[in-house]
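Ticket #4471: structure output looks truncated?

Reporter: J.K.
Steps to reproduce: submitted the chain below (483 residues) through the standard prediction queue, then opened the result file.
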Amino acid sequence: MPKRILYWFRNDLRLHDNEGFARAVADADEVLPVFVFNPDWFVRLPDINVCKTGAYRTAFILESVADLQRSLKEKGVDLIIRMGNTARILAELAEEIGAEAVYASKEVTQEETDVESDLSKLLKPLNVDLEFFWMATLYHVRDLPFYVSRLPNQFTQFREQVEKSATVRELIPSPATIVSVPDIFAGELPTLETFSFVAAESQQDGRAAIRFKGGESVGLARLNAYLWEADLAKTYKETRNGMLGEDYSSKFSAWLSMGCLSPRQIYWELQRYESERVKNESTYWLVFELLWRDFFRFTALRYGTRLFKPSGIKYDLTKRGNRDLVLFQQWASGQTGIPFIDANMRELNETGYMSNRGRQNVASFLVKDLGVDWTWGATYFESLLVDYDPCSNWGNWNYIAGVGNDPRQDRYFNIYSQARRYDEQGSYVKYWLPELAAVPADKIHLVSNLSADEQTACNVMLGDTYPLPVINPNHWLTEEKHR
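Returned output as attached by the reporter:
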């Protein structure tokens, strides 16, 4: 009987630079590529009444799996698609085909590692090996100049040590030929309706900065367009805090989150760009962002479940937010009466995306100004963000909530100062809050201070066409004066 390996695709939905799949093809006579949709991904979370994986991300996952399926079919192989209990399905398939091993990418957060443990227990009685491959980071975990248990608490220390002592591994070529296990029913790709969504729920608003479509081919096309066609890497550092448009930032995050793009692919393309076009602070800054992504993943590996608890990785039991559902819902729906916050939240709700600058501000506002439990905010982002990554999302929320590895204690964003700095003319706010279109730029970020006559002139009625503020925003003015 030919040697057979089952390859379990997870958050590595690509053929390029996929060490696990390449090894499976090299080690076996026949490979069975499998993807399992787990219904647990789509449960409704009771506290804040949202789906764990919302419509935008569900659509992106479906598109990514479909793209992988097409790529495999071009090589004469089908992707086996199943839905149900992941560990049980994989073990049954492994037994059915007489697999010697199951190969897969290694994950680090609790839900994913729980499935790994369940699968290991089911495979042992079958005498089937289980082998994992580290593939999600720029730097391989085994190449770090320290044990993960000694991971520096601050990003700067991490970056300096890694840049000094570690190197980025070369890319793994895509398999040239693949031989699959014959006579296995491929299964059908589910639809949005399978998970109780209607197609309209996944359609991004026409004002979206970019149409995120899942898949390796789309991710590679975005990389090529950003670097080589639009030549934008050379100005990234100057534009990265932008808030309107497709090209102020790379937008690679969604394809990275599902493994449609390898971080090493981005890195080595940047190296080529630097040698053929230009090398400057902006090109370095794109690598710098990949390092932040690595740092959050290694932090999750080090601290485990603490990442997801209100006390955070610092295990600070004094950090207890309120659970005021009305306040939270005003924040979540973009109805706080603070234009900069509302515009960002409405962009998220209508598109599944928000700029990095926006994410920091809305998180700070929820936690520091409203005092709401930060884990609710992180959970809401998990549901809505098309580029959701558990390590980066929950790591950043730990950071903002003051329970992470931020060297600054109680980091706080003055929302008014931030709004004036990053949306000076109010263009972003007006784009997402058209009801404020006639408000002058110097009034837009403190719209609640408009007099009755000014409201009439601007066609705004506070408490009617635009909400009254949930807090008094004028305290930000006082803070500005005393800086």
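Triage note (M.O.): checked the attachment and the full token line is present. Strands lie at 4-8, 30-37, 44-45, 50-51, 80-83, 101-105, 129-133.
Status: closed, working as intended.
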